[in-house]
Write a structure and sequence with these properties.
Elements (H helix, E strand, L loop, with lengths): L1 E9 L3 E10 L4 E6 L5 H9 L1 H4 L4 E8 L2 E2 L5 H4 L3 E4 L12 H11 L4 H15 L14 H13 L5 E5 L7 H16 L3 E5 L12 E6 L2 E6 L5 H6 L18 E5 L11 E10 L2 E10 L2 E6 L6 H8 L7 E6 L2 E2 L7 E4 L12 H5 L6 H10 L15 H15 L3 E5 L7 H16 L3 E5 L3 H7 L2 E6 L12
Parallel strand pairs: 3-8, 3-9, 6-7, 7-8, 11-20, 14-19, 14-20, 17-18, 18-19
Antiparallel strand pairs: 1-2, 1-4, 4-5, 9-10, 12-13, 12-15, 15-16
């Protein structure tokens, strides 16, 4: 059993106080709460990142099977604790997916035959054979998340921890992840998941731990319902299906359909891009003023399209026009909040970061205050939580005041309250006459925000894809 007794975690100030929690083998515990309440820090204390890599003040007892975990370093804890981080790319060491699965086992000096058998066994058990022998950098965000999950499963540890595991997963991938959890639970593993999206756990979790105002409140599965979620401002416990979103403003767009040219405020003409010999994009797109949600399965090309629009994929073919004029350079017209916000943060403080895009101090203060970041102006951007980083990029988008805004999975680190705040900001942007393109798997966001929905489909994807939801 993993157990906290009278445990406190503090940085400049205490973030979690007097924790008394236990985690049993064969149980799934979901840890939730508003962004910045300490969920990721809590996991880092368990695996040893805090205090061995990231400084913090700790007090109290943390034990596993009677052993004091605080006496063990990260390497020693890794013998029985596995973690899938919020951004799986931060834990990859290889360029080939099979090599990545083998990496931790090779470091344990296991025989080659045992490593190969472990990989074969776990990929078969978890239904992840399609992830074998793939170049990691060509995988979609969701496929990278599943690869990270499979890689840590191959370690066959006692404790598995996941930080926002659904952030990049489509509905099919979430179903696969649920199957992984069921199998790990049946094997008697201790499973701890920090997550905002709760609907897919409703029939899986054994207990819910809510971090609120520095304290931990524990609810058994029988007491976890929508009334509890509403009382504490949590995300929905009811699954929202694609059929719930079908409205007049819904359309499907083949990425391999070179139809007649369209007019529009923003015209992406004859876009074409391939990863090696594999084409992922060959189409055109047009957008007018308003809010556009782009949905579609993992790997279908949603993020690739955004990268082409932003000019980040240098070898892509096509032209981009805004109000009839070539969109070049794109940064003069576009503001982007990408899936991995760490690549968009460059300076030593929140204030310096937002000052990159504006010198209007009053506008910067107003944007940071609206997004609850004004008290963090002196913090290093990389010290913020995932949700706080996304909100910083959103504040920068507000003060940059460009006509085109692009978002890639903007709710991956946001709680319900901050998701609703994001929706308010999106509506304000639309009222200001902007065009917003938002890639997401978050149907709760789409249902609450409204707007036009475009589903990307590939040329090999069956038309009955919509029935999967």
């Amino acid at each position: 059993m993993l157990e906290f007794k009278n445990f406190t975690i503090a940085y400049e100030q205490e973030i979690l106080t007097n924790l008394n929690l236990s985690f049993e083998p064969g149980q799934i515990t979901v840890v939730t709460g508003a962004s910045g309440t300490g969920k990721s820090s809590f996991l880092k204390v368990i695996n040893g990142i805090i205090p061995h890599f990231q400084a913090a003040r700790l007090a109290g007892d943390l034990t596993y099977q009677g052993q004091n975990l605080l006496e063990l370093d990260m390497a020693q804890r890794s013998r029985f604790i596995s973690t899938v981080f919020q951004n799986p790319k931060t834990q990859f060491y290889a360029v080939n997916s099979t090599d990545e699965m083998a990496f931790a086992l090779e470091n344990r000096n296991l025989p080659r035959e045992e490593i190969l058998e472990r990989i074969r066994s776990y990929t078969q058990l978890l239904g992840m054979e399609d992830l074998l022998d793939r170049p990691i950098f060509t995988l979609s965000g969701g496929e990278k998340q599943l690869l990270a999950i499979t890689s840590v499963a191959c370690m066959d540890n006692d404790i598995y921890m996941f930080d926002e595991p659904s952030s990049s997963l489509d509905r099919q991938a979430i179903a696969r992840f649920k199957e992984v959890l069921v199998k790990l639970k049946a094997m008697g593993k201790t499973i701890i998941i920090a997550e905002h999206r709760l609907y897919y756990f409703r029939d899986l979790l054994d207990k819910l731990v809510l971090f609120e105002e520095g304290e931990a409140k524990v609810y058994p599965a029988a007491k976890v319902n929508q009334s509890l979620a509403d009382q504490h401002g949590l995300r929905s416990l009811t699954e929202i299906k694609k059929t719930d979103l079908i409205v007049e403003n819904f359309s499907r767009k083949s990425l391999f359909d070179q139809g007649p040219q369209e007019s529009g405020r923003l015209l992406c003409q004859n876009y074409s891009y391939s990863y090696g010999a594999k084409p992922v994009l060959a189409s055109h797109f047009s957008f007018d003023q308003g809010l556009y949600f782009i949905i579609g399965s993992n790997g279908v090309g949603k993020s690739t399209f955004l990268r082409c629009l932003l000019g980040l994929n240098k070898k892509f073919k096509g032209q981009t026009f805004y109000q009839g004029q070539p969109l070049k350079p794109s940064y003069q017209w576009l503001t982007a909040v990408m899936q991995d916000v760490n690549y968009q943060l460059f300076t030593e403080s929140v204030w310096s970061e937002i000052s990159i895009v504006s010198q209007d101090d009053e506008a910067k203060k107003a944007a940071l205050a609206q997004l609850n970041l004004l008290d963090k102006v002196d913090r290093h951007p990389q010290s913020l939580s995932g949700g706080e980083k996304q909100r910083l990029l959103l504040a920068m988008a507000r003060v940059a005041d460009k006509p085109l805004l692009v978002f890639d999975e903007p709710t991956s680190g946001l709680c319900r309250g901050q998701m609703e705040q994001l929706i308010d900001n999106l509506h304000q942007f639309v009222d200001q006459g902007k065009t917003i393109i938002l890639v997401t798997h978050d149907y709760e966001l789409i249902q609450k925000a409204g707007g036009q929905i475009i589903e990307f489909i590939g040329h090999t994807q069956p038309d009955q894809d919509s029935q999967r939801d």
